[in-house]
Design brief:
The chain is mainly beta. Among the domains are: 71 residues, Sandwich (Immunoglobulin-like), CATH 2.60.40.1120; 140 residues, no CATH class. It is built from 8 helices and 51 strands. The strands form 11 sheets. The chain has a 22-stranded antiparallel β-barrel. A 5-stranded mixed beta sheet has the order 10-15-16-13-14. A 4-stranded antiparallel beta sheet has the order 3-2-5-6, with no helix packed on it. The longest helix has 18 residues.
């Protein structure tokens, strides 16, 4: 009887025990209540695990009650949940700044807490909010130490990225690495990007000779394992307009001012009866469009099984220009395929292929004679059209010159087209040879073809420099290719419990080659764009009308890196790269680029204690040498690429001549980078602070087209000066970034970020014989406006200092003579400073009157989420940058900005704006009168969105439906008078590739960046 009773009790307990194990079905949601696929779900202290599918669902079999399940996902805090029922719902908290987040550092990754270099990361969430047309725009104001400037607001125009200042007169832009291969950042579809990682210091030395200007690592989106097919569609449409107009004189104001100017010059009044002219023509209104359309759409299909992941995407962008409409339009289409497969436990393969096509049309911009230059200078008294409906001709009088024409006619008679097709990508293989050692290989490639056509219509503007006596068409075809092959091994091991070592060793082979051909044909049939083709032109050329080039350059590199940490708190890294390049002579082909980084996680020390205020504190430092070889190929040789004309049998014959003078001593440009930084988290990780002090010294600058003695043959037909290692520039500064993130409740969260960068730029030496390099132009026929010189910022403006205006003749008589500047001074003229004190105002008194490099840049960003509503604001500021006002033609009859209404008209009337006169003055030479403080604060992006309750949309098979509206480039606060204080466009160097910072910041009438109003939606299926 007792045994039966005992057996019954055991059976009851066994039954009860088995009843406490059950299958767990669950759903994982993000902070906004949307399903979260790809989350790792693991039973604690067990090998049992799974991942959530497309709907955020998962299932675990036979889980005992009371078991702890761990949920982890990059970008979210890891959570542990104790099982108490068969069904659970988990809502994960956002933790985008988690210290466990993996950061790409080049040929490998590191946890964020272990990174010892100056590294910044932008994720896809930021890109979703900013909606940049070009990826570069997402870096402005979001990353400390990075400044992005526009060369033009025209659709498809290039943007300049500068990391920690301007260091060279040649190429200053960073190198983009897309999924491990050299690529072009500007051609990517922003929605294809998962993360952007910026390497700002010696951490980038692993890339050797291409790393001096910084490295931008792009990781594109991949599908997630064990997830159902996910379809994401994003689209927005909008319209654009000019963000500002310049206040010009209307017809009546212009006529009255011109009368005064003529009277002061002793001439008859041009408008004896100025009444009845009214406001006249607003030429800016005529050329600046309103409600100019923009449309962007993209779709992504992604997913994966246990072994395979995939992501397929496509995008379409169509944008017209606010100046010239379709005549300055841009169209871009992209398609992308990314696949990953685990062939076995040891073999993994991946591929990512991107196709890009764009078509761009342009108008004359950013220079004397540009469309906007003409819109600002044509008087308001002229009508756009004459009585016959034709474009009004601007007369070629002395007062209006030969370059000012009707801007509407200029747009109408502009014909060009440029299309570009590119296929790029990579194929990679990882082979795990044994525990801890993985061998990786990758082949990256870029191949592109482009065609351009420009038609010069036979036309007369009435005796202007733009008159075309003979119609012509110029066509170009270019083919560019490159490939890279990377092979490297990574070994990870642990010695004992506390010593962690990671070693990487490999090599890279890189080859770049291509060719171009161009030709010009004359006498286009019917003088029409429709017949503008070389095959149809029959006119004979009077000079060489063909051109082109062929190039082939290669680079062989070896690299190694060793990383060590003790208990995760003492961190060391050393790396070296050896590069050999065909760009340099036999004695200078090879360069070595070593670097060292270290870090100390102070918060892991026992003496730090369990601080409730300070959660994480790390000190780090780095020092290394990085290189720059971004110059044309064979810079050390002299090639037959110059154009020349010879006399044979008494006739002129076109031919070729020696081009660039050789420089066999040409060698690498080197950047010595030092950085010391601090990473701090306080208040339960709600506040994150990053601070860096850096010194970047660039030696042996590769400067093209250095003037040398005529004895060496520069003056010969077709010959050009050589490229030299001719200078040293230092940038030093401080970066500071602080972020605050708070989740007040499940319905309300806030994120605020602020960053600021202070930079001092100084040229240490210029070794070209004269110690000075000049570039940039001001006005017509004046000396170069900008200089590179030791002791000054690179590209500083070189001109005269002013000291107000002469108020009477006595002041003129008491002041040193200004006759050497072109004319004797009179009351109402600008008074220049005798800088050298020799009693005469002449060219020896020129000095530094400003520079285009900002002293500080900063960004302020805020994101707010309340229930289904999200709000974001991104802003940027630049402090201390100057610009030269050069869009005003100094011709007497050209129109003027309305600030001239405050001109000097008699003693005491003004001490800032000089008198107007047709007589000779020295008021038009380059001086600080034309240099303005272009500091500004810009609201770059405001967006507000609403996500419809997923419970409603999921009934239609939609997991997410978000509607939003926003404004890009909403408003710019500045005292600068021009269109865009943030624009910077330097002259192209004679190498035809790089743009010089010497001459940047001179405003010829920049094509303004448009204000864009957007309405869009995001749909996930």
């Amino acid at each position: 009887m007792k045994s039966k009773l005992l057996l019954t009790v055991l059976l009851l307990f066994t039954s009860f025990a088995f009843s406490q194990s059950f299958d767990v079905n669950g759903t994982v949601l993000d902070g906004s209540g949307l399903s979260l696929p790809g989350v790792n779900v693991k039973v604690k202290s067990s090998s049992q695990s799974t991942t959530t599918d497309f709907d955020g669902s998962f299932k675990l079999l036979g889980v005992p009650k009371g078991t702890t399940i761990i949920f982890s996902y990059i970008g979210f805090k890891t959570q542990e949940v104790v099982v108490s029922a068969p069904k659970i719902t988990v809502k994960m908290s956002d933790d985008a700044r988690s210290l466990e987040e993996v950061v790409v550092i080049g040929y490998g990754t590191q946890k964020k807490r272990e990174v010892t270099g100056a590294v910044s990361v932008i994720d896809s969430k930021t890109l979703d909010i900013l909606k940049p047309i070009k990826v570069e725009q997402a870096l402005q104001g979001t990353v400390s130490g990075v400044n992005v400037t526009t060369q033009s607001g025209a659709p498809g125009a290039k943007l300049d990225i500068r990391i920690r200042g301007i260091a060279t007169n040649g190429e200053n832009g960073p190198q983009a690495i897309i999924d491990g291969y050299v690529g072009d950042l500007s051609l990517l579809n922003p929605n294809d990007i998962e993360t952007i990682t910026v390497l700002k210091d010696a951490q980038a030395a692993i890339y050797g000779t291409i790393a001096a200007n910084g490295i931008i690592l792009i990781t594109t989106k991949m599908g997630k394992k064990n997830s159902k097919t996910k379809v994401s569609f994003n689209s927005y449409t909008g319209f654009q307009e000019a963000s500002r107009k310049l206040p010009m004189l209307n017809a009546t104001e212009y006529a009255l001012l011109l009368n005064e100017s003529y009277a002061n010059g002793g001439k008859a009044l041009p408008y004896p009866n100025a009444s009845g002219l009214g406001t006249g023509t607003d030429w800016q209104k005529q050329v600046l469009g309103k409600s100019v359309p923009i449309l962007n759409s993209d779709i992504t299909i992604s997913g994966g099984s246990d072994k395979i992941t995939y992501s397929i995407s496509g995008s379409h962008l169509d944008q017209e220009g606010i100046v010239g409409s379709a005549k300055s339009g841009f169209l871009r289409n992209t398609a992308r395929l990314a696949l990953g497969a685990d062939l076995s436990d040891k073999f993994k393969v991946k591929t990512n292929v991107i196709y890009t096509y764009f078509d761009r049309k342009t108008i004359n911009e950013n220079g004397l004679g540009s469309v906007l230059f003409n819109a600002l200078n044509v008087p308001a008294t002229f009508a756009p059209y004459d009585a016959n409906g034709n474009y009004t001709l601007v007369p070629s009088t002395t007062g209006l010159g030969t370059e000012i024409i009707n801007p509407l006619a200029q747009i109408a008679n502009t014909y060009n087209d440029y299309n570009y097709k590119k296929l790029n990508g990579n194929f990679g293989l990882d082979y795990k040879i044994f525990k801890g050692f993985t061998l990786s290989s990758s082949i990256g490639f870029n191949t592109s073809n482009s065609e351009g056509k420009t038609f010069g219509k036979k036309i007369s503007y009435g005796g202007k420099v733009f008159d075309v006596q003979r119609s012509s068409v110029t066509q170009t075809a270019t083919n560019d290719n490159d490939y890279s092959f990377d092979l490297y091994g990574t070994y990870v091991t642990k010695i004992g419990e506390n010593h962690n070592i990671t070693a990487t060793l490999g090599n890279t082979i890189y080859k770049q080659w291509g060719n171009s051909a161009s030709g010009t044909g004359f006498d286009v049939p019917n003088n029409s764009w429709d017949y503008a083709d070389l095959s149809l032109t029959k006119g004979l050329a009077t000079a060489v009308n063909t051109g082109g080039y062929v190039y082939d350059q290669r680079r062989l590199s070896y690299f190694g890196r060793a990383q060590y940490d003790y208990k995760g708190k003492y961190l060391l890294s050393a790396m070296i790269r050896r590069d050999a390049s065909t760009k340099f002579g036999p004695d200078n082909k090879v360069g070595y680029f070593p670097s060292f980084t270290g870090g100390w996680v102070i918060s892991d020390e026992g003496f730090f204690g369990e601080s409730k205020t300070f959660n994480f504190l790390k000190l780090r430092a780095s020092y290394g040498t990085l290189g720059n070889d971004q110059i044309p190929n064979n810079g050390f040789l002299s090639l037959l690429n110059g154009e020349a004309t010879y006399v044979f049998d008494g006739k002129l014959v076109s031919g070729v001549a020696t081009g660039q003078i050789p420089n066999p001593n040409l060698k690498w440009e080197e950047a010595k980078k030092f950085d010391v930084g601090l990473d701090l988290r306080v208040l339960n990780d709600k506040v994150s602070i990053v601070a860096d002090y850096f010194i970047d010294t660039r030696k042996d600058l590769l400067i093209p087209d250095i003037p040398v003695s005529g004895i060496t043959g520069v003056g010969a037909p077709g010959a050009t000066p050589p490229t030299l290692n001719a200078g040293t520039v230092r940038n030093s500064g401080l970066e500071f970034a602080i972020d605050y993130k708070e989740k007040f409740s499940n319905d309300l969260s806030l994120s605020i970020g602020y960053n600021v960068t202070f930079i001092k730029n100084e040229v240490l030496e210029v070794n070209n014989g004269t110690g000075i390099i000049e570039q940039g132009s001001f006005g017509v026929g004046q000396p170069a406006a900008s200089r590179m010189q030791a002791g000054q910022p690179i590209g500083y403006f070189y001109g005269y200092k002013t000291d107000g205006l002469f108020q009477n003749q006595a002041e003129v008589d008491a002041h040193p003579s200004q006759l050497a500047l072109g004319a004797n001074a009179s009351p109402g003229d600008i008074r220049y400073v005798d800088v050298n004190g020799d009693g005469v105002i002449d060219a020896k008194d020129k000095t530094n009157i400003g520079d285009p490099i900002p002293n500080a840049t900063m960004g302020f960003n805020i994101q707010l989420n309340y229930k289904s509503i999200d709000f974001a604001l991104y802003s940027f500021a630049s402090i201390g940058n100057d610009m030269v006002r050069n869009y005003e033609r100094v011709l007497s009859d050209a129109n003027r900005l309305d600030y001239v209404l405050d001109r000097w008209t008699g003693p005491g009337t003004s001490n800032s704006v000089p008198r107007v006169t047709t007589g000779a003055t020295a008021n038009n030479v380059l001086s600080d009168y034309y240099v303005e403080d272009a500091s500004y604060f810009r609201i770059q992006n405001i967006q507000i969105g609403y996500t419809i309750d997923p419970k409603v949309t999921q009934k239609a098979g939609i997991t997410k439906l978000r509607l939003y509206t926003g404004v890009n480039n909403l408003y710019t606060f500045t005292k600068y008078k021009g269109f865009d204080p943030g624009a910077s466009f330097g002259p192209t160097n004679k190498d035809g590739v790089s743009q010089s910072p010497i001459g940047a910041g001179i405003d010829y009438g920049f094509y303004p960046v448009p204000r864009t109003y957007l309405l869009g939606l995001n749909i996930n299926f």
